[in-house]
Amino acid sequence: MIKIYAPASIGNVGVGFDILGAAIKPINGELLGDCITIKLSKNFQLINKGIFSNQLPTNTEQNIVWKCWSKFCKIIQKNIPVSIILEKNLPSGSGLGSSACSIVATLVAINEIFNNPLNSKELLLLMGEVEGEISGSIHYDNVAPSYLGGLQLILEDSHIISQNIPNFTTWFWIVAWPGVKLSTASARKILPKKYTKDICVKNSRYLASFIHASYTQQSNLAARCMKELIAEPYRSKLLPNFFKNKEEIKKLGAISCGISGSGPTIFAVSENIKIAKKISLWLKNNYLKNKTGFVHICYIDTKGVRKIG
Ligand code: HSE
């Protein structure tokens, strides 16, 4: 029996739509992500557990875990039955890479129990494919960080899909999920098909500057470059009082604030733990819509997916 954990992630990281993703872990040591426990068995079996398991489809064949297993078996041309327990600890449609967590943990667990027939590139390609089927188009900015850890730059080059880039170890990432769902597929559908030259140039400049600032460890420059022109102007309407909240969070001392993935989770960045705690408290009091919502102060999770049992 093997138990695998895959961490939550912040897609886009406020500047690289579909191109940047960061794996995160709460500073209090809690695990923020999904777990898969797997063993070989006579028939395929799936048990859903965890605080958000009530959000999962009741039909097993609609569960991401089943989709991953069935695709994997097709690729290796062998039908190997397994028994799986999914601990769904992340809410779906949260913008924290919830589906990616399930996909990454499941595919890594299956690969491991089948004696690693797929290499890491093949696995990552498969993760992207499954994610694409769920969200409407392939994007690696959640699966890559959840799988590889750290801050990932999605290259989608013929040889390399994603590369780890330097992150700021002094940054605290505060994430707040309000307790309501927003489907990635619908948050992708509302985006324009075309952008003006001016937006393309500005967006390239911000992203290139952020990557430069990351490599040269210029924290303030990196934070100033975290501007998002592809999704934020359109998705902001789907989030409660986004610009007003952003302004308040900046007033509290955040050096950056944006939408995590496709939302409705928002993230804020601070280098100061006292400010991070203040922001966390403000978000708890002002951004959460119900008792299921949560706020976590996180570091970048550099490990990515891992065996925990
Ligand atoms: N890059 C993706 C998007 C992330 O913004 O649609 C989804 O979590």
Summarize the topology.
Elements: E1 2-7, E2 9-11, E3 20-26, E4 33-40, E5 45-49, H1 64-76, E6 82-87, H2 98-113, H3 120-135, H4 143-148, E7 151-154, E8 162-165, E9 172-177, H5 184-189, H6 197-215, H7 219-225, H8 232-235, H9 242-251, E10 256-259, E11 266-270, H10 273-286, E12 294-300, E13 306-307
Parallel strand pairs: 5-6
Antiparallel strand pairs: 1-4, 1-13, 2-3, 3-7, 3-12, 4-6, 7-8, 9-11, 9-12, 10-11
Helix pairs in contact: 1-2, 1-3, 2-3, 6-7
L-homoserine binds at residues 11-12, 17-18, 95, 97, 139, 141-142, 184, 187-188, 231, 261-262.
Largest sheet: 8 strands, antiparallel
Helix content: 25-40%
Structural class: alpha+beta
Task: Return the string of H and E elements.
Answer: EEEEEHEHHHEEEHHHHHEEHEE
Give the distinct bound molecules: L-homoserine
The first-level CATH class of the largest domain is given as Alpha Beta
Average pLDDT number? 96
Instruction: Enumerate the spans where pLDDT stays under 50 for 5 or more consecutive residues.
Output: none
**Count of individual beta strands:** 13
Identify the CATH architecture of the largest domain.
2-Layer Sandwich
Span of the ends, CA to CA: 8 Å
Structure annotation, total helices:
10
Q: How much strand?
A: 15-25%
Work out the count of structural domains. Answer: 2
Radius of gyration: 19 Å
Q: Which fold does the CATH topology of the largest domain refer to?
A: Ribosomal Protein S5, domain 2
